[in-house]
């Protein structure tokens, strides 16, 4: 996979990358807010779907992020493991 040079510094790599192009970061933020705030899906259903997508993509970073988010939405660890199994 191609690598993009990301400046060293504090904070997550994704944030440091996005700060190289603030207009892109603002657009991504607006899209993300729309997905979370203007949806008819209940939060629990949305997080189950996102967990399954992370599993299907085989992305460990996505899976860790989604698992943490699911737990923040009230899933216990057993429920998360059941979804990702």
The ordered string of helix (H) and strand (E) elements is HHHHH
Helical proportion, percent range:
55-70%
For the record, the count of structural domains works out to 2
Main sheet summary: none
Name the poorly predicted regions: none
Give me the Rg, rounded.
15 Å
Count of DSSP H/I helices: 5
Structural class based on helices, strands and sheet pairing: mainly alpha
User: Could you tell me how far the N terminus lies from the C terminus, measured between alpha carbons in angstroms?
Assistant: 27 Å
Mean pLDDT, to the nearest integer, reads 84
Estimate what percentage of residues fall within beta strands. under 5%
Quantity of strands, as a count: 0
Based on CA inertia axes, which overall geometry fits? globular
Verbal overview:
By secondary structure, the chain is an all-alpha fold. The chain has two domains: 12-40, no CATH class; 42-85, no CATH class. Helix content is 68%, strand content 0%.
Compile the SSE list and pairings.
Layout: H1 13-18, H2 22-37, H3 43-57, H4 60-72, H5 77-84
Helix pairs in contact: 3-4
In short:
The protein is an all-alpha fold and 85 residues long.
Features:
single chain; 85 residues; mainly alpha; 2 domains; 5 helices; 68% helix; globular
